[in-house]
TrEMBL record:
The lineage of its organism: Bacteria, Pseudomonadati, Pseudomonadota, Alphaproteobacteria, Rhodobacterales. Residues 720-751 have a biased composition (Basic residues). Pfam families: CSD2 (PF17876), RNB (PF00773), S1 (PF00575). GO terms for cellular component: cytosol. One of its GO terms (molecular function) is exoribonuclease II activity. Residues 628-709 form the S1 motif domain. It is an enzyme of class 3 (hydrolase). This is Ribonuclease R. It is found in: Cytoplasm. SUPFAM superfamilies: Nucleic acid-binding proteins. NCBIfam families: 3_prime_RNase, RNase_R.
């Protein structure tokens, strides 16, 4: 008879192998076979009854875990001077884990009884189970300032870069954090407010040269007026919040919902689950669950948190930091669907048929516990036959059904034909000191598309539910392109040898036909970019206009209430519509829906501009060390003052000033988007391949200046002294012959 492991051995195994927690995995690890598995099952059941384990479907998990962000209470220092802390949110039945606080330089001193919001990291082989890093003290919300440090005889001063700041800040000699004269620094208030004289500050972060990469996003935040400091009353409100209990909520904790996010995600606000539908009337169908963090439970209408969230409108994301819509106590803790931690949610259960069409849906307000915090790449690897310890245990019951449901949703997408643009997304990678190490294009995995399709379907269900119940809400709408922009797109398509149908009601399938024509040709990126530029910008409104790009009649944002105020409005509308509580949409909010929609549309554009400016500055800083190098690219825009080029390697946009094109005068044709030389007849248009030399890169502005070396692999024709004159006229027959020749060349390349 095989020896059955002790309870301690089993618990140690599960702790060391969190991804291998099924009974089969445990039996295999201890060499238990045949009838001995009955005894193993008995031991596991005893551990479950004793509260050491909890069973979810076919796996056993240790319930005694802390969330990665949580509130701690600092204990008295021990004999060695170490500070330990007590977790205030503990769901396990065993002894509370020991948490060691790790202090960093320039952080305020902590004492016994202080409550702090901290980020935790599990450790093994020590006399404590977690190490904590301070995010901030609970109840403390010191004012922050970004400015230039000026060294003085005693300490120094900080000159804020914010144009609206009218005071400098004094810095004591022991609070400079080693800052040097002229450095950009971030500091926080030191001492009480309202004292006579200049306010005092403590330097908490040195950012170096104001033109250096780490300063880029902070400068953009201030330039665009993005609020990055929470008011005291909003922070205090968040600090008072406690985790939601079950109450009248539907208990969803037995559902193996999982979150799938980037590996560095801190706010996990959506979880998914799929399973086959066993209803014989829906053969081949699926049941989909999408659970979203119940932010409305914590952010009540008219509260300080609500006022600040509406003011911000959304979170803003930069390569090196995030400006969140909600304080970290909510965004990183209570509203984040951490693995194994009970969290309040609003969920929708959807039934789809084998073709991916939604048959029905049901919304509920519940309490869930994530069965796994997964990353896109590891989910895709598991699907492709390379599971790791964590995903192996979830393959059969979670990951495989998700992909099966995704397969059905792709059929519905193909029938609906939303706009299918193929534009690579850049990812700027930074070193620890904030310098750009590389610029890569993000991989587009099926795992990404899976989550997108689930979220789109949940957003559709929310819009349809509220429309059915005749409840006011904010829609996400996208109108079709204007006739002028469509004509411009047709010009670009024709110049590349393609056609865009005219004289009929425009549908996304017509644009997809154009994209299909260009696919695989040298004009593919140009046509995708030109199609994107022809689109109007999506926005928020209480009016029901539909979403052209997604080819949907009803669409609302429901799935990201941590980072978008529009989603919070939709959540409140659902709460009111179903009578789930008093934290739904208030009458005042209903009266102000139009103004709110316009405001958050503007804050979204503000964030997009700040993010774009920051990316441009990072790219300029990255390329500043390569001035004089040659690059290949494609002409992406034509203006009277010059030519815009998108570089192949980084996707950065640079300008060739008109003066760099030669001595001749160039005539600008705005409709055809071309420049034509008066002497040589050189025609420069969108989509042409070019080789350029980088002549200047200015990180402060993000500007790149280029010198044109060749067009379509041909050297530039020489011209005499610059003079104004009419461009040479091209005979109609000759022009037609050239166009026909171009089309034949394109067709041959495509074949």
């Amino acid at each position: 008879m095989t020896r059955i492991p002790s309870k301690t051995e089993i618990l140690d195994w599960i702790a060391d192998h969190p991804g291998q927690t099924s009974k089969r995995d445990i039996a295999k690890a201890f060499g238990i076979k045949g009838a001995d598995r009955i005894d193993l099952k008995r031991v596991l059941k005893e551990l479950e009854d004793e509260g050491h384990l909890e069973k979810r479907r076919k796996t056993y998990r240790d319930p005694d875990r802390l969330p990665p962000v949580t509130v701690l209470q600092v204990l008295a220092p021990n004999a060695d001077g170490d500070l330990f802390a007590k977790p205030l949110e503990w769901h396990g039945e065993g002894a509370e884990p020991r948490v060691l606080f790790i202090a960093r330089k320039a952080e305020p001193a902590l004492g016994e009884g202080d409550r702090i919001l901290a980020r935790l990291q599990e450790v093994r082989g020590e006399d404590h189970q977690y190490e904590a890093r301070l995010i901030r003290k609970i109840g403390a919300n010191p004012a922050r300032v970004l400015g230039i440090f000026r060294k003085g005889a005693e300490g120094g001063r900080i000159v804020p870069i914010d144009k609206g700041a009218d005071k400098e800040w004094m810095v004591a000699p022991d609070a400079t954090h080693g800052a040097k004269d002229g450095e950009l620094v971030q500091a926080e208030q030191a001492g009480p407010r309202g004292r006579m004289g200049l306010p005092r500050a403590r330097v908490v972060e040195r950012l170096g040269d104001p033109g250096a990469p780490r300063a880029v996003s902070l400068i953009a935040i201030h330039q665009h007026g993005i609020p990055d400091a929470f008011p005291d009353d909003a922070v205090a409100e968040a600090d008072r919040a406690k985790p939601a209990g079950l109450g009248d909520r539907e208990d969803l904790r037995d559902l193996p919902l999982v979150t799938i996010d980037p590996p560095d995600a801190r706010d996990r606000d959506d979880a998914v689950l799929a399973m086959p539908d066993d209803d014989p009337k829906n053969a081949g169908g699926h049941i989909l669950w999408v659970a979203i963090a119940d932010v409305a439970h914590y952010v009540r209408p008219g509260s300080a948190l609500d006022r600040e969230a509406r003011k911000r409108g959304n979170s803003t994301y930069f390569p090196d930091r995030v400006v969140p819509m909600l304080p970290d106590r909510l965004s990183g803790d209570l509203c984040s669907l951490h693995e194994g931690v009970p969290r309040a949610c609003i969920a929708v259960r959807m039934v789809i048929d084998a073709q991916g069409n939604k048959i029905s849906h049901r919304f509920t307000r519940g309490l869930m516990a994530s069965a796994g915090a997964l990353a896109y790449a590891e989910v895709q690897d598991a699907r492709d036959g390379r599971p790791n310890d964590k995903t192996a245990a979830l393959m059969e019951d979670v990951i495989a059904p998700l992909y099966a449901a995704y397969g059905a949703l792709t059929k519905a997408r193909a029938a609906r034909q939303p706009l299918d643009l193929d534009l690579p997304e850049r990812r700027i990678e930074l070193s620890e000191d904030g310098h750009v190490t590389s610029v890569k294009f993000r991989d587009r995995l099926d795992a990404h598309r899976l989550i997108e399709e689930f979220m789109v379907l949940a957003n559709v269900a929310a819009a349809e539910e509220l429309t059915r119940l005749r409840r006011p809400l904010i829609f996400r709408v996208h109108e079709e392109p204007s006739p002028e922009k469509l004509d411009a797109l047709r010009e670009v398509a024709a110049a590349s040898g393609f056609t865009l149908a005219k004289g009929q009601v425009l549908q996304t399938r017509h644009l997809n036909d154009l994209l299909d024509q260009a696919m695989g040709t040298e004009f593919s990126e140009l046509i995708n970019l030109s199609t994107l530029r022809s689109m109007t910008q999506a926005y928020y409104t209480p009016e029901h206009f539909g979403h052209f790009g997604l080819a949907l009649r009803s669409y609302a944002h429901f799935t990201s209430p941590i980072r978008r105020y529009a989603d919070l409005i939709v959540h409140r509308a659902l709460i009111t519509a179903h009578g789930w509580g008093k934290d739904g949409l208030s009458p005042q909010e209903i009266d102000e829906l139009e103004a709110t929609a316009e405001h958050i549309s503007q804050t979204e554009r503000r964030s997009m501009e700040a993010e774009r400016d920051t990316t441009d500055r990072y790219l300029a800083a990255y390329l500043s060390e390569r001035v004089g190098n040659e690059f290949t690219g494609r002409i992406s825009g034509i203006a009277r003052f010059g030519v815009f080029v998108k570089l192949d390697e980084t996707g950065a946009d640079g300008l060739i000033p008109i003066r760099e094109l030669g001595n001749e005068y160039f005539h600008h044709d705005r409709e055809a988007q071309t420049l034509m030389g008066a002497d040589t007849g050189l025609e420069i248009g969108i989509g042409q391949r070019v080789t350029v030399r980088l002549s200047e890169a200015v990180p402060v502005t993000g500007g790149l200046t280029l010198e044109l070396l060749s067009i379509d692999d041909k050297a530039l024709p020489r011209s005499g002294p610059r003079k104004r004159g009419k461009p040479p006229r091209r005979a109609p027959a000759r022009a037609k012959a050239k166009a026909a020749k171009t089309r034949r060349k394109v067709i041959r390349k495509r074949k």
